[in-house]
Amino acid sequence: MPAYILRRLLQSGLILLGVSFITFFLLFVLPADPVRQIAGRSASAATVESIRHELGLDQPFLVQFGHYIGGLVQGDLGRSYLQKSEVSVLIASRLPATLLLMVAAIFCELVIGLAMGIVAALRRDSFTDQALMMTSFVTVSAPQFVVSLLMLYVFAVKLGWFPIGGYGTFRHLVLPAVTLGILGSGWYSRMMRSSMIDVMRTDYIRTARSKGLTRARVVLGHALPNAILPIIAMIGIDIGVFMGGIVVVESVFGWPGIGQLAWQAIQRIDIPIIMGVTLVSAVAIVLGNLLADLIAPFIDPRIKLK
Amino acid sequence: MSAALPNAGAALAPEVLSVQGLTVSVRTGNGDRALVENLSFTLHRGETLAIAGESGSGKSITSLAIMGLLPPPAVRITAGSVRLGDTDLTKLPEAQMRSLRGARIAMIFQEPMTSLNPVLTIGAQLTEAIRAHSDATRSEARAQALAALQAVRLSQPEQRLKQYPHELSGGMRQRVMIAMALALRPEVLIADEPTTALDVTVQREVLDLLRDLQREFGTAIILITHDMGVVAEMADRVIVMKAGQVVEAATTRDIFVAPQMPYTQNLLAAVPRMGNGSRVSSDVPRDRSGETIARLRDVVVRFPLKGGILGRTTAHVHAVEHVSFDIRRGETFALVGESGCGKSTIAKAIVGLAPHQGRIEIAGQSFSDLDAAGQKALRRRVQIVFQDPMAALDPRMTVGALIAEPLVIHRLGSAAEQRARASELMQRVGLTDDQLNRYPHEFSGGQRQRICIARALALQPDLIIADESVSALDVSVQARVLELLQTLQREYGVAFLFISHDMAVVENISDRVAVMYLGQIVETGSRAQVFGNPQHAYTQRLIEAVPVPDPSHIRAASPRLAGDVPSPVHTLGQGPARLVMVDVGDGHLVARLYDGAEKHCLSSANFRRE
Asked: Does B106 contact chain A (CB < 8 Å)?
């Protein structure tokens, strides 16, 4: 097990190197010029060039990338062009908010998605099943900002149950977490439904029923642990999709997380922040997948980590 | 019908289960269609009733109907009653039915590999069954579970409780299933093909066990099976079913001695029987030019098992160990042995799909000596027919395209010629050429296997490997496919490597036989030598273990076996004991230990480990 984790972490290092190379390259070939953003429209050509030289942006691509990686291995994510602050400090101040929202949202996703999937599978082809699957289809296809604004309008503006935006209390957390949960639940419910239908057809479920177990025991004790296995692998992969969704939802709800930070940085081509946020997201995805793989053997004893 | 049914030896025992006029129907677009129609029987304490029939006869549906486990809402009981004591199970609400299930009626299923939940321990699955029907505390239930595992003679029962199903072999899992079913001493046990998925020696152990436990607990057993040998050995009475209807019901002795209905007579005639090395079917002299088609010398196949941080090889699965044999033109050479003995790996090695050491020659050539073009040409000379014809045929291709595909791959003939060849082959295997444009799912299992055989014949190979090719077929279908293989062999002079676990089939079809055990050949010779005068203890045991479709056959008492075949996995540098083949007369070779010891290396005492 320790050997497995060590090997996976070494692989992760390579993945992160690849991610940073591709992102850095894309930002390098971007036609927009970050120096213009910093200098402002009225700056003279000489000023622009001096800023460019100061930031090292006049160097060849590989030299710039080398510098960046050199700093990175020492834990230096560079300085923001515009916020005049260390990127690591900026990210560190916003990461807890994002992690909190992420955990809460994944919890909502799973509760909503798995419950819908299980009920739909057990009442297969009934009206309930069709209604649930229709709902899941809507949540999968609805644009994030539409759902976010709708939730905000109904529960914060009209009903006034929750604050319109901000951060700090549990009540602030509910709307963004539930919104992300609803948006993500569609995939889980569909996957859980088909997984559960497959499992309910297996021989060991027939065995469990032939033992005279109650339906609840058959479903929760025998079917669920088997049906949930593919879902666990999916959570790891889902973190990537999730990171995309969080940018929109954080902006709508004024949640001070790294999604908001990224959104501002992209608009101003603040390369060090974009790089920093991308890497933090990549780390989250890599760790999420590792965690999912580490959990799997506890549920399915047949899985051996090698 | 049941009223007229005579009871053998169970006349005085009280009645436990009575099924009257049971009809099970499936709802279709055109109204209800009966899967089982008007089935009646009674079952007495301590008695075994066999329900025999081929696939689609409704025997498994019957068992699910009695258990109240029919898949709702499409399939349901539409008439009749199932009375357990004074209770009519068909009228019982689900909650009350649930409290009977597992407690008063229990069931074991065909597939031990998939019938246990893979993510729960054996102990959890056993105790849960016990606690569902009693107020036993956790520790009381555990003690009961342990006793149940001891009752089914499972080795190391304490440890088994903590193990997961995948850590147990098929035979051990079926013992666990039996332990689970019998833990609460049910009055009725329904055993649905309980030994069909097991090796023949394991089947023998499980059948012995069922009979011992029945005697001890007085359980009434409904035995659902297609195997007339199992029927003859286990049952007091038999119901023969076909397409949901009862064909014949009688005592086991009467069914075998004087079957009344033509269907029963045909069914019994199709059952392959063991002789004493003599071919039961007509023995036709065949062309024996003596030319060697395939020559295997010292073939070794080992699969590495990796472990540790660097993923280095730490052990090998010794799948095939120093195997040598020849197959001559026009003969049938059978490889027989139990699952995991390496017989299918040899087939893969012959067609170049498994990396091996040693030398394999087909018509004097070896894949290892040839370039890609040469290998492709050599592949034409060997073809395989697999066990599961549905899985071996691409469902999106027409039968004509499937049969012609080998010709297309090897660029033989024009499209029209390929088509003509496909149509000719269809007729050769007993199908018609107007079926060429149909898809595999439109054919029955037996017909699909004929299509696979036609495809194998397309390239006019010298050798066809039949890997368990008839094992998945019903006996009557099996008999006809075997007949077809023999006819084709006479016509085309093709040699067969016939791989099977079924001793009776092998005895009926083969010219020469090799018995494999743990990757090694332990005995080889002509059919008459191996079956008529088996020398090796393992061969003897294999032959003895086969259920005999004759109720008057008296089995010699043999010690009750338990435990499993030793593992073929050895750490680096280790390996199984090297065997040498000793000629005991006229090419009949029997394995002895390498050091020349006179004693058989695998005596009956140590080829199974407790």
From this structure: yes
Residue A261 sits in the same domain as residue A161: yes
| Model-wide pTM > 0.90 | no
A299 assigned to some structural domain: no
Full 3-state SS string of B315-340: EEEEEEEEEEEEEECCCEEEEECCCC
Please judge whether B132 and A211 are an interchain contact, meaning their C-beta atoms are less than 8 angstroms apart.
yes
Q: Between vectors from CA B226 to CA B224 and to CA B230, what angle results, nearest 5°?
A: 80
Q: In which domain, by residue range, is A189 found?
A: 93-267
Judge: B114–A299 Cβ closer than 8 Å, yes or no. Answer: no
What's the average pLDDT block by block, 10 residues per block, for chain A (306 residues)?
Answer: 85 90 87 78 81 82 87 83 83 88 90 93 90 90 86 86 82 87 89 93 91 91 91 82 80 85 84 88 88 87 78
Q: Which candidate, B157, B154, B190, places its Cα nearest to that of B172?
A: B154
Residue in chain B nearest A126 by alpha carbon: B73
Q: Which DSSP category does B279 fall into? A: -
Tens of pLDDT, residue by residue over A43-69, are 788 888 888 888 888 888 888 888 888
DSSP 8-state class, residue B187: S
If one counts the domains in chain A, the total is 2
**Pick from B109, B132, B164: CB nearest A207:** B109
Please count the CA atoms within 13 angstroms of the CA of B466 that sit on its side-chain side: 33
Co-location of A144 and A263 in the same domain: yes
Whether residue A137 is found in the same domain as residue A240: yes
- Name residue B467's beta-bridge partners: B499
ipTM: 0.78
SS3 of residue A43 by DSSP: coil
- Per-window interface: B 324-383 vs A, CB < 8 A: none
**Residues near B243 by beta carbon (within 8 Å), at least 6 away in sequence:** B56, B57, B58
What CA–CA distances, in Å, run from A145 to A112, A162, A249, A257?
20, 18, 7, 17
Among B67, B69, B70, B119, which would you mutate to test the A interface (most chain A Cβ atoms within 10 Å of its Cβ)?
B119
| Cα(B508)–Cα(B281) distance, integer angstroms | 7
Residues in B closer than 8 angstroms to A299, CB to CB, are 119
